[in-house]
Write a structure and sequence with these properties.
Elements: E1 2-5, E2 25-28, H1 35-46
Antiparallel strand pairs: 1-2
């Protein structure tokens, strides 16, 4: 498996600033997970409308 640490940048360059999600660690057990699926997860958790926002 792979572990990711998800941490909001303290000095974000543009608004709206992205919040820190409650669960800052993400474990992916399946090594075949794509970056697109991870992006969709983050878009959902951050409440964004579009995958191009993060």
């Amino acid at each position: 498996g792979v572990w990711f640490v998800l941490q909001a940048a303290p000095h974000q360059g543009r608004e709206p600033f992205l919040p820190q999600i409650p669960r800052s660690y993400l474990r992916i057990k399946d090594g075949r997970v794509t970056v697109r699926l991870l992006t969709k997860y983050l878009v959902n958790k951050l409440g964004l409308e579009d995958e191009s926002e993060p």
